[in-house]
Amino acid sequence: MANTKVSGFSRANHVGITVSNLEKSIAFYEALTGTKISNKDEIGGPRMAKTQGLEDTRIKYANIHLDNLNIDILEYVLPTPEKTSYQNNQISAMHLCFEVDDIAAAMERLKEIGVEPEGEPIVFQPEDGLKAGFGTAVAYFRDPDGTNLEIIAPQGPFKRKNS
């Protein structure tokens, strides 16, 4: 199959993260990113619910605009949310990865805001089985609700052309 862009699918606009407490999550993501929310509002009703396959919905939300992606923080009031937890190896699990220039400085930032990483960061080496991307550093952590998050200091094919 040819590597052609499909109109409208070459850029990401946002990632939505469902949370248990909007205010607590706003504080976390503002501290993590150093960016204040741009908007806080509430949306819902049967019309909105139909876009999600629901009968009715009410969602409190906030938006954070990063340089290349927006984060929508969503607290569902209706229907009553259910807690779930995904490990990175589970099918349909997703994670949000933040690109950083310096993995050590990013780890210090996590410690400053009280975040405990899943483990120590690693730097990709030939023994990891990669053909390229050596020197790329990664670490994983979670937000207050257990959402899978990652930091990456990319090299080689992991580095975007416009970064």
From TrEMBL:
The keyword Transmembrane helix does not apply. GO terms for biological process: L-methylmalonyl-CoA metabolic process. Transmembrane segments: none annotated. The keyword ATP-binding does not apply. Residues 11-154 form the VOC domain. One of its GO terms (molecular function) is lyase activity. It holds the Pfam family Glyoxalase. Keywords: Dioxygenase, Lyase, Metal-binding, Oxidoreductase. This is Catechol 2,3-dioxygenase-like lactoylglutathione lyase family enzyme. It comes from Chitinophaga dinghuensis. The lineage of its organism: Bacteria, Pseudomonadati, Bacteroidota, Chitinophagia, Chitinophagales.
